[in-house]
């Protein structure tokens, strides 16, 4: 009951929640953003980072997000209330408490993430000096940190799994719509999920 009262109070004080799509890099957050956009939810993106071989469907990013941990002025986020924005897990702790957040957190097998990151670096001609096992440990720590932070009252959380979403996109789309409490177009959401992009498998 206490949590319900606090949520009602926060909703009155801070208005509609910001839909935050989060996860580790290369976990499927861009796919989740595309699903929300297809379903009819407005998304916050500046379009500066365009689609490429690593993300053929687009990145759905806003450059201002990258500065969240370095800037004190985060008032611009208020314009994202009622919309969806992509914020990687590392930056969740930089979100100010004067908003409500509906957090859609996308999980993916950590070994698949490491493989995807390594391939992306190789395509760019860059080298990765971090051994895979150390990278896995660092990723596990980031997920633990995110779980710890999202216990705060400004967050409501839905956890999605990349592999399940690729295999059964419509049921996962329905989960998202129910969580957000919005009449999203489930068929369109499912229709943009492309299993052919599942190129790094555990």
Report on the structure:
With 202 residues, the protein is α/β, with parallel strands linked by helices. It has one domain (2-190): P-loop containing nucleotide triphosphate hydrolases (Rossmann fold), CATH 3.40.50.300. 40% of the residues lie in helices and 12% in strands. It contains seven helices and five strands, in the order H-E-H-E-E-E-H-H-E-H-H-H. A five-stranded parallel β-sheet has the order 2-3-1-4-5.
Quick rundown:
Helices cover 40% and strands 12% of the residues. It has helices at residues 2-14, 29-39, 110-123, 132-149, 162-167, 169-180, 186-191, and strands at residues 18-23, 43-44, 84-86, 101-107, 155-161.
Q: What ranges have pLDDT less than 50 throughout 5 or more consecutive residues?
A: none
- Total strand segments: 5
User: What's the helical proportion of residues?
Assistant: 25-40%
Query: How many whole angstroms does the radius of gyration measure?
Result: 17 Å
Ordered list of secondary-structure elements with their pairings:
Layout: H1 2-14, E1 18-23, H2 29-39, E2 43-44, E3 84-86, E4 101-107, H3 110-123, H4 132-149, E5 155-161, H5 162-167, H6 169-180, H7 186-191
Parallel strand pairs: 1-3, 1-4, 2-3, 4-5
Task: List the keywords.
202 residues, alpha/beta, Rossmann fold, 5-stranded parallel sheet, 7 helices, 5 strands
């Amino acid at each position: 009951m206490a949590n319900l009262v606090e949520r009602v109070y926060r909703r009155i004080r801070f208005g509609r929640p910001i839909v935050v799509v989060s996860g580790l890099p290369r976990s499927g957050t861009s796919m989740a953003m595309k699903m929300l956009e297809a379903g009819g939810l407005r998304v916050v993106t500046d379009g500066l980072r365009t689609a490429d071989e690593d993300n053929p469907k687009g990145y759905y990013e806003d450059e201002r997000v990258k500065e969240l941990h370095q800037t004190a002025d985060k008032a611009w986020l208020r314009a994202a209330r009622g919309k969806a924005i992509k914020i990687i897990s590392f930056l969740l702790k930089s979100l100010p408490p004067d908003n409500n957040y509906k957090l859609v957190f996308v999980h993916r097998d950590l070994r698949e993430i490491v493989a995807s990151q390594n391939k992306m670096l190789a395509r760019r001609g860059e080298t990765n000096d971090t051994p895979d096992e150390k990278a896995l440990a660092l990723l596990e720590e980031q997920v633990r940190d995110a779980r710890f932070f999202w216990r705060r009252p400004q967050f409501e959380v839905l956890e999605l799994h990349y592999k399940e979403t690729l295999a059964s996109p419509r049921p996962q789309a329905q989960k998202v719509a129910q969580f957000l409490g919005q009449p999203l177009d489930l068929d369109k959401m499912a229709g943009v999920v492309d299993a052919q992009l599942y190129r790094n498998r555990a």
